[in-house]
Amino acid sequence: MKQMNKKKTGMVVLKRMREQNQQNKKLKSATNIISELQERIDRHTLTEADEQKIRKQIAKEDAELAAKALDSDRNHQLNKIFSNSMINKKLENASFENYHAENEENAKALAVCRRFVETFNLNQPRSLLLTGAYGVGKSHLAASIMRDISEIDIVLKRDNERDVVLKTRKPTMIFINTPKLLTKIRSSFSKTSEFTEADLLNEIESVDLLVLDDFGSEIKEANNDFAVQKIFEIVEGRVGKHTVYTTNFNVDELFNFYGERNFSRIMEDGNLIQMSGENYRLRGFKK
Q1: Which residue spans adopt a coiled-coil conformation according to this UniProt entry (predicted)?
Q2: Does a structural domain hold residue 61?
Q3: Do 95 and 32 belong together in one domain?
Q4: Assigned domain for 83 exists
Q5: CA-CA distances (angstroms) from residue 197 to 154, 200, 238?
């Protein structure tokens, strides 16, 4: 009997020891969980430096969104002002590939225009003045320049360490017939105009590339003060920007039209490209 009681007591003690061990394990497990939770809380507690970093990131993202909105507004403004003044239908498909140079002079003009596109850089502004008789392809080459530059991505932000481009935009460009531009300016004086002269000149002066087609045709007389003054304002405002001029007039005639001050501005950082040949518009009417 005593032996049985001892055995039973031993079993009870063993059971209690097991239960105690299990409780200790649970307690240890709970302690570990609490410790781990505390570590997580500590890891996710923001320091003052962390908060400043987050605020800067939020401010940066807000600024980028504002810039996108501004670009959208600007594109809308450009479309509103110049929707009827861009490249005409006959030049919509113009490209370097479908331009046929009939002589060495025009082949050189083609090469210079291609080079203008290849080296296009906002930090190195240049101008081109394409001169020649009617129908030799001046406007065709100018439109081809715009076509190819429209495919360029201007890098705004780059990670130099990883050599990765982070942000880009497309160039802003306007192609406009110069006499039509003067008409646009005059129309802005009307009370019913959707834009002011300042709006128009601001867009003309600020785009990355401006093509003034048929340059000089707005000057019927050398003393056309209004046209000369507006052209001067535009040319002066384009300093530090890429501009392409096409004209049927020679250098001497342009010099007489605009005067030394204006003409020297036009040719600043510019190349003179002389073209020659038959009027391609009349090739089908040869006798």
Answers
A1: 20-47
A2: no
A3: no
A4: no
A5: 29, 5, 16
